[in-house]
Amino acid sequence: MTDTVDNAKATPEQAQPYRELGLKDDEYARIREILGRRPTDAELAMYSVMWSEHCSYKSSKVHWKHWSANTTPEMKAKMLAGIGENAGVVDIGDGWAVTFKLESHNHPSYVEPYQGAATGVGGIVRDIMAMGARPLAVMDPLRFGAPDHPDTKRVLPGIVSGVGGYGNCLGLPNIGGEVVFDPSYQGNPLVNALCVGAMRVEDLHLAHASGTGNKVILFGARTGLDGIGGVSVLASETFSGDEGGTGRKKLPAVQVGDPFTEKVLIECCLELFAEGIVVGIQDLGGAGLSCATSELASAGDGGMHVELDRVPLRAKGMTPAEILSSESQERMCAVVKPSDVDAFMRVCAKWDVIATEIGEVTEGDRLIITWHGETVVDVPPRTVAHEGPMYERPIERPHDQDSLQANGPEQLARPSTPDELRAEILRMAASPNLASRRWVTEQYDRYVRGGTVLAQPSDSGMIRVDEQTGRGVALATDCNGRFVKLDPYTGTQLALAEAYRNVAVSGATPLAVTNCLNFGSPEDPAVMWQFEQAVRGLAEGCKELGIPVTGGNVSFYNQTGSTAILPTPVVGVLGVIDDVRRRIPTGIGAEAGETLLLLGDTRDEFGGSEWAHEVHGHLGGLPPKVDLAREKLLADILVAGSRDGMISAAHDLSDGGLAQTLVETVLIGEVGARVFLDPDQDPFVQLFSESAGRVLVAVPRSEELRFTEMCTARGLPWRRTGVVDPESGTLEIQGVGEIALPELREAWEGTLPALFG
Amino acid sequence: MARVVVDVMPKPEILDPQGQAVARALPRLGFDGVSDVRQGKHFELEVDDSVDDETLAKIAEGFLSNPVVEDFVVRRVQS
Amino acid sequence: MARVVVDVMPKPEILDPQGQAVARALPRLGFDGVSDVRQGKHFELEVDDSVDDETLAKIAEGFLSNPVVEDFVVRRVQS
Amino acid sequence: MRIGAVTFPGTLDDSDTARAITASGAEAVALWHGDADLKGVDAVILPGGFSYGDYLRAGAIARFAPVMGEIIDAARKGMPVLGICNGFQVLCEAGLLPGALLRNAGLHFVCRDQWLKVENNNTAWTTRYDANAEIIIPIKNMDGRYTASKSTVDELEGEGRVVFRYTGGNPNGSFDDIAGVSDPTGRIVGLMPHPEHAIDALTGPSDDGLGMFLSALDSVVAA
Ligand SMILES: Nc1ncnc2c1ncn2[C@@H]1O[C@H](COP(=O)(O)OP(=O)(O)O)[C@@H](O)[C@H]1O
Ligand SMILES: [Mg+2]
Asked: Which residues of this UniProt protein bind ATP (chain A) (predicted)?
């Protein structure tokens, strides 16, 4: 029998499986207090998914004060929509608005790597569509356990083919991402996905259900039993799933994606936007219809009535609670004026998209859901969507933080002879974290849509937004979790600095920031300390750089047993370039006789470095120093250099230091180079230190003087470090030796194919 | 030697976009009367007589199918 | 209503890298005694009783399989 | 001079194909899978993508679309038709070109800049290339392994109907490194790599792909 509101009133004492649904005693009590009675099964399903960590941000929300406290009016001015919307939107000029967002799909991708990753891409793309934008490109920052662990051989190929399988079929170029290995991710890989989209400024759509009498239309795929309980599973301590309070057998909390349906849905949505017949729109992601209906109603100016029995189903005998919490993919929900419904249905029919009027916007402020005429949900929507619980979790600096920082890398044995240094360069180039990502990126279409200007291997991905003017955007995502572990505040600022630098290195001006904060359990005070430090570091860092955080995502409970992952606040920076034709490529050798200049200062900084990790399995000490004013100066100079055509190639220094940057620039450019180290500094430090704020640029000889004078005038340290040598076919480093390009290439490109076939 | 067949199908509650695409196309091609289609994989294995049913079930469950989203059936078709 | 099964397999002379990949992986996972694996597709159709065998053959040959590279078998499994 | 680019549900490279047509100086005409209408075009291109998700077999469902009947008729009368990637798969499924395209031998999707040799510069789509020209254009697909019976391949090779061949490595295990073939008249051509993604060194590895679109202009003017 269906549990109606009347029935709930009549049976106040009936026991309910709220704990199994992830609700705490006091949360359940609060729901009873809000409703003045016990919730129905359907209401309980809605509250439990919407009040889950994943949907409600209940452990993280208190820290959002750092965003607002650090956003100046000038930073706000570029933002057309910010935190709180489906995705942040920034004005990039020429009448274009760009929206971008990162999201995690970590836990499902461990259970079912292919589908978990695929639906992660699908979900973030719908978020971008819900802003009224055309999705333009995707990126996929990934983290895996030890490269040689047998389970990594299951997880990595599955995730990579899932990201590719979905994104390729959707027709979105993949323009970048990350692949990082660390044993802390063994039982908990990270699959973060970014989507960027664009629209004309006037076409921005926000998720609001306004206008009494307007119709609510569900369109896209049918609703089935997949992914039920997914949200509570996603955000709770266990993967065990739940019984959904329905007595049905345990269902896989995994969704299967249908990228073809999503592709058609994209085209259908864009045609609907173009016709101007969408008042409000919301994607169905985690928490499915529970989320879409309550958020639309909560953000609007009225109530909403939904007839749940109208929802097209894929499975027989689904209960209202199941329909409300199903996470079937490829669905959207729109609010449409009654006079536009016919036109709406016509567009959907053209694309063969199932569309059903399931309800309407009503007077008042209740969300009422009926099931064959009986009321099964009657709630104030704000209490479901926006006024969920909020926790001030205990915070405590980990007891071992001091000893971790005290255990610096100074004692580690360093290579010193030329032969040792040469061997170390090859070893590092072949290490899993530094080796070429080609095995991964070759599985991704980077050409589709014809606007990709930079993609792997490149510091940032860049796409053309406007074909007439050449205006475009560049994006980079970064995070070194080891740096964050050693010092979460500085480490997060280093992630920001690297992403910012990667955007600037391609010639674009950094404009806005998104993030995906992947951490362990929020119930662990040490994790909450890392989290709070990271948020504060990012917010204050953004203020110093003058670029706003426009949105983001939090993923907690990333741990294997009781061991948390390395804290991994992935930072995405978006930049704008007025004409993509002046992009700066990574590979040297495009112009004859280029000089290589190293910009920035190199210090003896090895705490959390790739070298300490790869060679000594060591993690301790302090991360490199971060100097955001310097990063800003560096970015200004790179953008100015690009504008004036002074720079022919550039690549920043990050993981693996100068050695790795040299390896990549010569291999990508397919040209030799001669490099002179500074006789006054230890060659090992020069080659492998990971000091921040450094970039290697190639300038045509004719521009060298003009460029270096600009650096000197503006106070940016530079050093002439080498020359491109097209004849030699080797990377020659004075005092170290020569490495022929084929040998170098074999080291760099052989690793991932050997590991993953 | 025996020939063993393993059929792997998406679980009934799991979305099967492949089968749906076929089901939707059939009427357009002029074939009516097919109300549902599901698409899975069909493996044919040449197996040594020493391989017992338990091993076959392990191969089918642990490798040829993904128990999270798929069911399987093993049949020996000749020996 | 009848359930009809259609199995579609790559023709014997056609290279089947998917089957080969499975065959190569099995010994690595500790399963010996499987000498050959071929992988094809398995369709399950819910079919109205009015649909005759000739129509089913047309569906299988002209649509579910590509005769250039694949063979098929149709079976009615229940009615 | 009007060249049509067909959109099926799931077609992805239609706008890129239109851009390439425009870049060659012709007028790009959008053709819709559901309309049995070629809008008076002089040539047709079937672009890449995953029509109907490629769920059954690549190209298997698309070939039955209403627009395909018109294309098949027009092709039989000599209209130049080019199938790129998924479009090539559709042409094979429709029987306009021989053979089939199967899952890549490496079982992965492969996206890379691929060297090709133009083995026949007498087709409607290749006259702008020098004989045996080597060109670099992107390839990106899951099912690109060209397969045909021995007798069919012998016939293709004997009649010079292997139009493009992979050089510098075979990305997918295609028989005889075959990347593209033509019908006996040389007016219908299919290839797996994507010329529409090589029309400008800004967004592709080269502008080597433009020659195919320009060749079509010549062939229509000549006809
Ligand atoms: N998972 C991935 N998906 C797509 N591109 C990736 C992925 N991982 C790495 N890449 C690309 O490979 C190149 C090298 O990556 P990385 O060394 O991490 O860059 P950086 O150090 O500049 O941040 C970049 O172009 C990056 O975007
Ligand atoms: Mg970089």
From this structure: 57, 101, 515, 552
